[in-house]
Design brief:
With 158 residues, the chain is mainly alpha-helical. It folds into 2 domains: 79 residues, no CATH class; 51 residues, no CATH class. α2 packs antiparallel against α3. The radius of gyration is 18 Å and the shape is elongated.
């Protein structure tokens, strides 16, 4: 999640926001794991709870989701972990604001960007990267894709 979040922030930096979709996948996985920890997997109650939670997130009611998780946090570590994740990433989960700005909130966009921008360059056969080298390559590639390559070199020279 940290990698996708960093990439999303690099790709959307000109918009003055954190990435809309970066937390989506983790949020979905977290909902699924928490739901199956609290309710019998595949049960009507689990499905109903997931639908309510999804609706609350889509409407920007993250506080209601966090409050529901808080009710279960003492008996369910996954609920406690997701509650902390949602609090930490609140700004990345402001889906109504992102939609208002015509930004996509699906995780497929971020996953596609990771594959196109990053994996296509860093994961070629025989390549080995240091963390610093990979980070430098990621920043450079994102600068190209944001049409900010000249700015990238100006910052590097300065």
């Amino acid at each position: 999640m940290q990698f996708a979040s960093r990439l999303g922030n690099l790709l959307t930096g000109d918009l003055g926001i954190s990435n809309a979709g970066a937390i989506g996948r983790a949020g979905h996985q977290g909902r699924s794991r928490t739901r199956t920890a609290l309710y019998e997997p595949g049960s009507d109650l689990a499905a109903q709870w997931g639908k309510v939670w999804r609706g609350q997130l889509d409407q920007g009611r993250l506080d209601l989701v966090i409050a529901e998780l808080a009710r279960h946090a003492e008996r369910c570590r996954k609920a406690e972990g997701n509650m902390a994740c949602f609090r930490t990433n609140r700004v990345r989960m402001d889906y109504p604001r992102f939609r208002e700005r015509n930004l996509c909130v699906s995780t497929g966009v971020i996953q596609g960007a990771c594959k196109s921008v990053i994996a296509g360059r860093l994961k070629r056969g025989g390549m080995h990267w240091s963390v610093d080298g990979a980070n430098a390559c990621i920043v450079q590639r994102c600068s190209v894709h944001r049409n900010r390559f000249d700015d990238f070199w100006e910052r590097r020279a300065g």
